Amino acid sequence: MFEVTLDPKKGKSFDVGGTIFKAGVPRSVSDDLGEYLKGNEFFLVSRSDSDNFKDHGTHTKNEGNQTPSGENGENNPPGSYTEKDLLKLKQAEQEGIIQSLNGDPGQAKNAQERVALILKLQEIAQEAGLE
């Protein structure tokens, strides 16, 4: 596995084969995609220890098997989080999600405000057909 981050100086978002990278938000990607992006100046690529790395803001056009699971095994729509899911995340993870939804993490002062912002940004994205 590789950890890939879009260089914020090079762009805000970038789509590579259906995987969307947001500036400054690290993504865990397959070996094939990591090797492909290694020589690209727009990305910071390094080997990752998959046990210690969490993918922030997992957004792909064809998310298929990457949907988060809710309680009792039900599946949430791709890229959607419930308030309960979000409250379990650490601050950095919440901020990564906010950035991946094109929001400003600086708008939220605490966990409750971050969760409310994520839910609002998700709703806006779904209405705009971005999810």
Describe the structure.
- This protein has 131 residues and is an alpha+beta fold.
- The chain contains 4 helices and 5 strands, in the order ββββαβααα.
- The strands form 2 sheets. It has a 3-stranded antiparallel beta sheet, with helices on one face. It has a two-stranded antiparallel sheet with strand order 2-3.
- Helix 3 packs parallel to helix 4 (111-127).
- The chain is elongated and about 40 Å long.
- The relative contact order is 0.14.
Feature tags:
alpha+beta, 131 residues, two-stranded antiparallel sheet, 5 strands, three-stranded antiparallel beta sheet
Question: Would you kindly provide a brief summary of this structure?
Answer:
This protein has 131 residues and is α+β, with helices and mostly antiparallel strands.
CA distance, first residue to last residue: 25 Å
Mean pLDDT over all positions: 74
Q: Give the overall shape, derived from the CA principal axes.
A: elongated
- Total strands: 5
Give the number of helices.
Answer: 4
| Strand percentage | 15-25%
The Rg value, from CA coordinates, equals: 15 Å
* Uncertain residue segments: 50-78
Reading side by side through the largest sheet, how are the strands ordered?
A: 4-1-5
Structural class: alpha+beta
What is the N-to-C order of secondary-structure elements (H for helix, E for strand)? EEEEHEHHH
Q: Summarize the biggest pleated sheet.
A: 3 strands, antiparallel
Percent range for helical residues? Answer: 25-40%
